[in-house]
Specification:
With 238 residues, the chain is an alpha/beta fold. The protein is built from 6 helices and 9 strands, in the order βαβαβαβαββββααβ. The chain is 36% helix and 18% strand.
């Protein structure tokens, strides 16, 4: 199955928090987009793995994703191992994305940095012919995405580029709030967490407004790159 963009997150909700506005924009412009979640988020303070799967499916509908898969690696304990790299390589070769969006290179949650490294290495290794993987019993063709971009998460990172997501702000927040167990709900009896209060939602809005201001837009999402970005036309820059 060929996708234009594959977004990868260590946990269900990582992609929504970091890149959902960009995904909504790209889908409206005709791109096919899928998501691979590395873990079920089973160690999260609130909710459960089963509930997170249901919430991820609900968020996928809001975003209009073509596919969403979960690799069920160990939340909090997955490593950049040969086994985990090959799990992700199989999915990269299956989806054959031109662009990969993935976790921040360094962040408050250590899974994010490991997820970033895992995705980056898997994208490179996926292009090596001598690494053999199979999908449903058939040997896969090698495939290397043209670009890997890292979305910015909890900790501030100076972005290399910012996407104007102003028309998609409300829908972006709808995809995030599909994870109803995780975020602000005054009626919830679950323990508090660093992301469960109203202040976290205020932070999301402020961060996006700050990124937007950098490009003279209302809201933006920032990304960092692994190599210089090529531009065919200076008029593409603003």
């Amino acid at each position: 199955m060929k996708l234009d963009i594959l977004a990868i997150g260590a946990h269900p909700d990582d992609v929504e928090l970091g890149a959902s506005g960009t995904i909504l924009k790209q889908i409206e412009q005709g791109s096919s987009v899928g998501v691979v979640d590395l873990t079920l988020g089973e160690l999260g303070t609130r909710g459960s793995a089963e509930l997170r799967l249901k919430e991820a499916a609900a968020a996928a509908k809001v975003l209009g994703l073509t596919e969403r898969h979960n690799l069920e690696m160990a939340d909090g304990f997955f490593e950049v191992s040969e086994d985990n790299l090959k799990k992700l390589i199989r999915h990269i070769r299956y989806f054959q994305p031109d662009i990969v969006l993935c976790n921040a290179p360094s962040d408050r949650h250590p899974d994010h940095g490991r997820g970033s490294e895992l995705a980056s290495r898997a994208c490179f290794l996926s292009g090596l012919r001598k690494i053999e993987t199979k999908w449903e019993g058939k040997v896969q063709e090698h495939w290397r995405p043209k670009a890997v971009y890292h979305y910015i998460q909890d900790r501030y990172i100076e972005p290399d580029f910012v996407v104007d997501i102003s028309p998609y702000w409300e829908k972006r927040m709808e995809s995030i709030m599909a994870y109803s167990s995780q975020f602000f709900d005054p009626a919830s009896k679950e323990p508090e967490s660093p992301i469960s209060g109203q202040s976290f939602l205020d932070h999301l809005k402020g961060r996006s407004q700050n990124f937007g201001r950098l490009i003279h837009a209302e809201y933006g999402e920032g990304f960092v790159v692994e190599r210089p970005v090529g531009v065919r036309d200076l008029k593409d820059l603003f």
